[in-house]
Amino acid sequence: MSPHAGARAGETVCGADVFCVHEACGGCRYRDISYAEQLAVKGGAFRRALEDKGIVPEELLEIAGSPRLIAYRNKMDYTFGDEFKGGPLTLGMHRRKSFMSVITTDRCRLVDRDFNRVLTGTLSFAADRGYTAYNKKSHVGLLRNLVVRKGVRTGQLLINLVTSSQGDVDGPAFAREVCSLVQESRVVGVLHCVNDNPADFVRAEDRRLLCGDDHYFEEIMGLTFKVSAFSFFQTNVEASERLYETALSWIPDPAEKTVFDLYCGAGTVTQAAAARGAGLAVGVELVPEAVAAATENAALNGLANCRFIEGDVLTVLDRLVEKPDVIILDPPRAGVHPKALRKIVDCRAKTVVYISCNPNSLADNLAFMRDSYSVKRVRAFDNFPFTAHTEAVALLESV
């Protein structure tokens, strides 16, 4: 075992130590500096993003580091390709600042060793059979992506091979091969999905279950979630749990209150709010698959005091009869569109808890709301060590 295989925040994992052998991979921007330096860089950038928009919280807490620094990712979307034109088949991540070049990242430190084993075995399986990679410019070729997902708390592994329809794959042999490689997890399903859409995005036009189930289970905040091959779920479970627990703990006296969770995704926070005694928790999400998954998981967790609505926040708010005491926002990286943000402000909820994955869009949205809400408390979270991404929670109260 690597001496840093389970490293926690505060332990040395880089600096004099070589953090990762994949120097050209574009995944880890901060691979060469200590974790303390990473937190200083990210915390400073977050503070400047707020200052640039004139946001002065009453309380700006220190950035929270990730509970785990190594092997924290529970999902990887790998790409087939080549490192140079005409080169041998590769499988992994894009070379830094390159659309076409793919590096085989078989010793990545952000995932556990079973991910690397599955990647290595899949690449060998494909190369031995002469399968070709799908070319993103010519749109010719067979192999597109390998998606590996894991339930961290359950140890369940779901493997998904994504190809075009331009050839045949020996699915049963592939399933046997990858299942034989896994040592520390338990494979609960292997899928083969066909995607002929020219866009460079993992999706499925046809799904073929090679063995097991098309989903796995994860546990977070005392709840159980069924996660399918294409469902959204938090990538770093331990860090996300701490972020969400913080967000929920900042809601004053949540018992019996009506909570709107806007841009709720798979409804993780919605259900956690319901489980903590909210009178009613309403999740709103644009993606139909996410709403269906959230509804199913709420039933799985026995939560009768929450429901989910499919649609754009901009239009759904006009249809809701209930008035929120609390609004939770967890928008995509672009933040909340000004038109939707105006309607959110007009709801006149006393408390708003904003969960953000982009400091700049958070600052923009807080500036938009400053006439109606005061920023009481903000904290940044580093949920993705060695990358440039920073998340945050902000507590707002009506003025």
Report on the architecture of this protein.
The chain is an alpha/beta fold and 399 residues long. Among the domains are: 40-67 and 236-257 and 325-398, no CATH class; 75-220, Beta Barrel (OB fold (Dihydrolipoamide Acetyltransferase, E2P)). The chain contains 9 helices and 17 strands. The longest helix is centred in the N-terminal third of the chain and has 18 residues, at 35-52. The protein is globular. The N and C termini lie far apart (54 Å). The model is unreliable at 1-5 (pLDDT under 50).
Q: Catalogue the unreliable spans.
A: 1-5
Q: How are helices and strands ordered from N to C? A: HEEEEHEEHEEEEHEHEHEHEHEHEE
Mean pLDDT: 93
- How far do the termini sit from each other? 54 Å
Q: In what order do the strands lie side by side in the largest sheet?
A: 1-16-17-15-14-11-12-13
Cα gyration radius (Å): 22 Å
How many β-strands, per DSSP? 17
CATH topology of the domain at 75-220: OB fold (Dihydrolipoamide Acetyltransferase, E2P)
DSSP strand (E) fraction? Answer: 25-35%
Largest sheet: 8 strands, mixed
Indicate the CATH class of the domain at 75-220. Mainly Beta
Number of H- or I-type helical stretches: 9
- The geometry reads as globular
The CATH architecture of the domain at 75-220: Beta Barrel
Kindly state the percentage of residues in helix. Answer: 25-40%
Global structural class: alpha/beta
